[in-house]
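Aim 2 progress update. The chain analyzed this quarter is reproduced below.
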Amino acid sequence: MKLHIKNGRVIDPAHGVDAVQDLFIVDGKIAAIGTAPAGFAADQSIDASGLVVAPGLVDLSARLREPGYEYKATLESELQAAMQGGVTTLVCPPDTDPVLDEPGLVEMLKHRARIVDQANVHPLGALTVGLKGQALTEMAELTEAGCIGFAQAEEPILDTTVLLRAMQYAKTFEYTVWLRPQDAHIGRGGVAHAGPLASRLGLSGVPVMSETIALHTIFELMRATGARVHLCRISSAAGLDLIRAAKKEGLNLTADVGVHHLHMTDADIGFFDSNARLTPPLRSQRDRDAIRAALVDGTVDAICSDHTPVDDDEKLLPFGEASPGATGLELLLALTLKWAQDQPHGAQGALALAIGKITCEAARIAGLPAGTLGVGAAADVVLFDPAARWTVDGKALASQGKHTPFLGYELAGQVRATVVRGRVAYQR
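Predicted structure tokens:
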């Protein structure tokens, strides 16, 4: 299969490319940019005039709900959502049912993803058996089965000694430990950011120190072990200050934020809108502004969709009883572009910076050969119209999860085509 994408504005942050050029794809790989390789005759051409041609998006947190939660979503529905969102590579947390703590389960998930044959799916293995925080999993066997790192999802480890042993084990084999910093006790059972708004609404709060206390612990264990840690979905200004200092110190550390937290604050809960019930909770405007600034200065390395499809039975409930989570795969691009448009330092540089946070930077964190249009790289490409405006409508989303706090919002940036391994997997 030979594919010619012509007249598009090619943006490849990994190589500093931003120019109107043609892209030539042969046998699932990028064959050339600009000038056609010798003897190239296209089987298919796409005219990308007026469109941005970028690497396929890399999403560091997408729950696909298989195995075990097929009533919330299936691989078919969520990978179709990924295609419509331009996401060609995604990392899925281990909090399935059963938990991804055995090689057979990981191999089964990888096999199912191969059959569906759309986005590239890379599971995280459970750090502890059953995510119970007691016994370590067989990380070497899980890595052989296809895991790219190890996580606890939303289950904090009560016994710090267990986390210490896990990081020692991970360091021995140079595995990455993925942790969302949250204290196991402070804020347990909380449903909103601990602040004046939660008090007025009578909602139980999750204070910022739940995040910062956990960060202090993680950094002490990193100093003791030398382990590499990726911090997932940071939510607070105070947490970002600690991460900034730890990076200056030289700790082997990366961090991401959920795309919802780039735009929304606890005020968006409004009158108990359960669509705004997220984990971690939406925090104050000061925290939101700190996250946006930390993306610019490099404290935060990547943006993820935090895609967590929830069905009506678990979402259409009083705020405190609703399940946390929102669909995000189809919104990741548009919401990231909105952050770029809001930047004061010149839209052109901001666009390349924003695309980098959801392509090459995310791929670097995950240790994956993705997120680039370099010659020889896998031909995972997204074509999008940065000016096309669309309204977020739950019924129009491909994901089985129809709930997002952005329902009814008008966003700019629409995917026109998604190419996976040189094949046009989606075209609007």
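Residues 209-225 form the longest helix (17 residues). DSSP finds twelve helices and 19 strands in the chain. These observations will guide the mutagenesis experiments scheduled for the next reporting period.
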